[in-house]
């Protein structure tokens, strides 16, 4: 869970969930473990860990660009929240699955030796390192990410057809539908009501504003919720605090329903 949380903060939570799920499944089965506790731990960890940084999840990226909050400043504000959440999540997973996690397991199944490609590993590592350096030096998030991606794309040797086969079209259609709902709300009187609601929630304190953000995130998912909040945050008395609270609440809200956990489970 610690590894998944740290990697999610740096390289996007959805990516880490997709990469680590088959690895966890293979390791658990090879050791004779029930994979469910580890998958639940992974789902919670990638979500909570992504709170830490602007690069942790899509809604944080939107907030980082819209708010102008620096990468390091974002981490300083959100790291304590993510650390506390990880501890609580670990305790919950251990208490719920203590029988599965506490016993000894034996299996004769061997784990297949992974295929490695050192040039791609070095290239990816260098691109990721340059990305993190650029972000810590204050470079704009979109520009830093585009430059790192360009390094990988320009020097790639993988056929485009192989990349397209890995696309999750069901996921893309799912998000397209959510953005259509968001656009429809913005074009109706619901937008005016939402503005008043946000102003009222913010005026009642951080707790109420957090609960309001979490509620909307579970109704329409966190990214569309942030897009709906975005035009109204700048009108608040303390917009920077509101942005940080919105990033925390909309991300952690994903642990309450199946919307953000379905990638892993």
Characterize the largest beta sheet: strand count, sense, and whether it forms a barrel: none
Kindly provide the radius of gyration, computed on alpha-carbon positions and rounded to a whole number of angstroms. Answer: 20 Å
Shape designation: globular
How much strand?
Answer: under 5%
Low-confidence runs: none
What's the order of the H and E elements?
HHHHHHHHHHHHHH
Number of domains: 2
Indicate the multimeric state: single chain
End-to-end Cα distance, whole Å, is: 15 Å
**DSSP strand count:** 0
Q: What is the typical, i.e. mean, pLDDT?
A: 81
- Residue share in helices? over 70%
- Name the structural class: mainly alpha
* Count of alpha and pi helical runs: 14
List keywords for this structure.
mainly alpha; 14 helices; 74% helix; 265 residues
Question: Care to describe what's here?
Answer:
This protein has 265 residues and is mostly helical. The chain has two domains: 2-109 and 158-255, no CATH class; 117-157. It contains 14 helices and no strands. The chain has helices at 2-11, 13-31, 35-49, 58-67, 71-96, 98-102, 118-136, 141-154, 160-165, 169-186, 190-203, 206-220, 222-233, 239-252. The protein is globular and about 60 Å long. 31% of the residues are buried. The model has no long low-confidence stretch (mean pLDDT 81).
């Amino acid at each position: 869970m610690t590894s998944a949380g740290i990697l999610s903060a740096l390289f996007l939570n959805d990516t880490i969930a997709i990469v680590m799920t088959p690895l966890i499944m293979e390791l658990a089965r090879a050791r004779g473990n029930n994979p469910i506790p580890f998958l639940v731990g992974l789902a919670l960890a990638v979500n909570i860990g992504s709170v830490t940084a602007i690069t942790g999840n899509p809604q944080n990226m939107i907030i980082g660009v819209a708010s102008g909050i620096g990468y390091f400043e974002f981490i300083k504000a959100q790291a304590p929240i993510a650390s506390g959440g990880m501890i609580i999540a670990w305790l919950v997973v251990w208490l719920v699955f203590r029988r599965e996690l506490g016993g000894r397991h034996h299996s004769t199944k061997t784990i297949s030796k992974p295929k490695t490609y050192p040039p791609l590993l070095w290239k990816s590592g260098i691109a990721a390192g340059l990305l993190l350096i650029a972000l810590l030096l204050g470079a704009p998030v979109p520009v830093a990410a585009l430059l790192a991606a360009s390094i990988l794309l320009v020097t790639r040797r993988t056929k485009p057809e192989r990349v397209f086969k890995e696309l999750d079209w069901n996921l893309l259609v799912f998000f397209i539908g959510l953005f259509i709902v968001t656009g429809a709300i913005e074009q109706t009187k619901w937008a005016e009501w939402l503005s008043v609601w946000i102003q009222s929630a913010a005026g009642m304190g951080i707790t109420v504003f957090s609960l309001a953000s979490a509620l909307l995130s579970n109704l329409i998912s966190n990214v569309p919720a942030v897009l709906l909040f975005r035009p109204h945050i700048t009108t608040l008395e303390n917009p920077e605090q509101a942005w940080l609270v919105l990033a925390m609440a909309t991300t952690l809200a994903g642990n309450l329903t199946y919307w953000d956990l379905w990638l892993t489970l």
